[in-house]
Amino acid sequence: MSDIKFACIHCGQRLSCNQAFAGQRLSCPACQRSILVPWAPAEYETLRTSGASTLEADLPAPSSPTELPRISIPHLSLPDIEASSVRQAPKVLQLQGRHRAAPGFSKLAVLSFALSLSGPLGFIPAIICGHVAKWQMRRNLALRGDSLATAGLAIAYASAVFTAVFAARTLLRGL
Asked: In a 3-state reduction of DSSP, which class is residue 15?
């Protein structure tokens, strides 16, 4: 059997799989979203290769103006389903394109936490990295590190308050 080549409708990743999986739902290896494997009926393939068609020229003329012509629709060929066999999870082959690693900890969450501990001026980039990390984790639920970003933000905001109080106190003593 030949492979079916198609693209994921969500991320555009080009994929290929065996014709036995035609018409089934699989998960895209790139974006992990559910996609339907397309397939063309066997009759369509034979009609397309032979040049025959069921266009209006092949249809009988209607007997009255209100009567609609009958159109013959080719039957769809479905893959054979064996009730006794246990179906294994299909393996979709990735043709080409970008490879995405499995998501883990958010690097920005780790960076936010580290910068919040770095000193009095580290709180500014820590706050920025913490908020961007939380935004990324809301968009990609597979990313981890929400509590690390929250801790980095809490320490950074506390550091900002202490730095502001210390700066104000120092300036007021000089007056």
From this structure: strand
DSSP calls for 102-150: PP-B-HHHHHHHHHHTS-TTTHHHHHHHHHHHHHHHHH-TT-B-HHHHH
What is the C-alpha separation between 72 and 81, in angstroms, rounded?
26
Q: Please enumerate in sequence order all residues whose Cβ is within 8 A of that of 48, keeping only pairs 6 or more positions apart, or say none.
A: none
- The β-bridge partners of 3 are 18
> Within its chain, how far is the Cα of 38 from the centroid?
18
CB atoms within 10 A of CB 27: 14
> For residue range 19-47, what is the model confidence (pLDDT) as tens digits?
888 888 888 888 888 888 886 555 445 54
Q: What is the pLDDT of residue 28?
A: 85
Question: Over the range 103-113, which residues count as b (16 or more CB within 10 Å of their CB) and which as e?
Answer: eeebebbbbbb
How far is it, in rounded angstroms, from Cα 15 to Cα 5?
Answer: 6
Residue 42 is given by DSSP the state: H
- Supply the DSSP symbol for 5: E
pTM recorded for the entire structure: 0.43
Are 40 and 29 contacting, i.e. CB atoms less than 8 angstroms apart? no
